[in-house]
Design a protein that fits this description.
Layout: E1 3-7, E2 10-13, E3 18-25, E4 33-39, E5 46-51, E6 58-60, E7 68-73, E8 78-83, E9 92-99, E10 112-113, E11 117-122
Parallel strand pairs: 2-11
Antiparallel strand pairs: 1-3, 3-8, 4-5, 4-9, 5-6, 7-8, 9-10, 9-11
Length: 123
Amino acid sequence: QVQLVESGGGLVQAGGSLRLSCAASGLTFSNYALAWFRQTPGKEREFLSRINSSGGRTDYADSVKGRFTISRDNAKNTVYLQMNSLKPEDTAVYYCAARTVYVRVGATKWDYWGQGTQVTVSS
């Protein structure tokens, strides 16, 4: 079965950096677009970034543009999210997701999800 496993979350001070990873199995990774979302209690899952199957196209939410960078390594079946200049409002559970078509759509339209990794940014 398809599995997406996030890692790399943790506690960091404001202004710091973290790199999240999401390792995929059970699917032909290079055929899938990947995305990162985040969620805080009581709020909907928020789109952050997506990358197409080859890695040649990316897209970012305004809230993270210029601070976060998505990338992928198809040889390692892994997608990354480099997060710089972190702010306390970036505190959330971060999720990766996969779908076959590279389209900016809401969370409900993504086919596969990881279990999430907690990121906490202290002020």
